[in-house]
Amino acid sequence: MTSGSVRRGQPGQNIVTPAGDASHPEPSAPTPGTPHLERRIGLANAVTLNMMYMIGVGPFITLPLIVAAMGGSQALLGWLLGAAIAVCDGLVWAELGAAMPEAGGSYTFLREIYGREGAGRFVSFLYIFQLGFSAPLSIASGCIGFAEFASFMLPRLQDPIFSAWPGGPHWTNVVAAGACAAIVGMLYRDIRAILRTAWVLWAGVMAAMSVVLIAGFTHFHPALLRMTPHALSFSPAFFAGLGSATLIATYDYWGYYNVCFLGGEIRDPGRTIPRAVLFSILVVAVLYIAMNISVLGVIPAQSMQQVARTVVAEMVARTLGPAWAVAIACLIMWTAFSSVFALLMGYSRVPYAAALDGNYFRIFAHLHPKRNFPDFSLIALGAVASVFCFFRLAQVIAALVVIRIVLQYLLQQVGVMVLRVKRPDMPRPFRIWLYPLPPLLALAGFLFILFSRPQALRYLVWALAIAVLGSILYLLRARSRNEWPFRMGAPEPR
Prior knowledge:
By secondary structure, the chain is mainly alpha-helical. It contains 18 helices and 3 strands.
């Protein structure tokens, strides 16, 4: 080799960085028999994994929360605004994912945007550090939703474990943690077996959506969708409610980017990644809005809080009968299980990518010697998520969304514009439509979510605390390793 530098990863996985193109490395061919990620995921599988992540328990269990935030059927505005933000943000993911199709998604994007051996090393480390909190929170939210619908059929699961401590953990928390452990076990296999399982799980997700839509629209009462007087008064209270509703809707839409975390396993990534991102957003937005209209056309918004988070099962019970209500509860549990399956699979690749790059703890770079998946990363995320299963769902969702926006999405929206300036000639198989409008609108939407809600500062403080702690850890580590900002002179080859 006469030019360029080498970054050392797994044995047999040295990554060659050609001279003059330090921001867009290409992996060399792995040594035969060495564990490595394989490009086996095509467009159909990519869309399936995205939709399984997106259509988790969220839209079924958060509908009463969104209606309560808006005070009536005008809650549909939250879903529409959330869809608009998802499209704008999805275009950013599509451009970055097609240009940098590696395992890790945002880790790779932030590292390359802000400088591989400069500030990008710090920003990408901070992203991985917050992922240690936000990814398990996301996983836990799906498992908690799974347990909530289990309690629809077994109400005793709502009882506290310790009768003398009513505010303590309930049996639903134990069920949630057990579901998380089971999913880790299902993912402890090679990618081909996982993709076969994904199709079976996806079929159950579509069945759940179909039953809800049929039950709602065959017993639909348009009068129930009428808004209350002054529902669109555009008062401070209206915007505060819209901010809270959009936060929850944004959580429900998330997952369209899952394919970017699996970039190192995608076939023809320049075409597959953008199509998977945008197609999954379009299909899921239509399904969500149709589902919410169907439910609001059966159960009045004013009485929705009385049936709590199992409102979809209650709607099916009123329209198709109790037996179908049990069936939909089972299908929604299936859906929650499927969503956690997809997102834990995707997130487990991110610490692996960072560790392989030398920017995170080395143990996360380990691949299973026979099945070629990041086994330690998978187990670690599953273990932390099991602990978070003992939190309340509303707390988990709010903390997850705020932490992710502050320490990932804002940096990424700004970053895609920075990269256009720094690297105008970088190969971009997909370019953002109507650039720079989508990233600017996504920024505006995320800032609206952050600051329009009541008690917004509570979760912003959590995000700030994680950022400070992660920064301290990075600086201590960088000083001992002579890395940015302590390194003087040209970087040594890695």
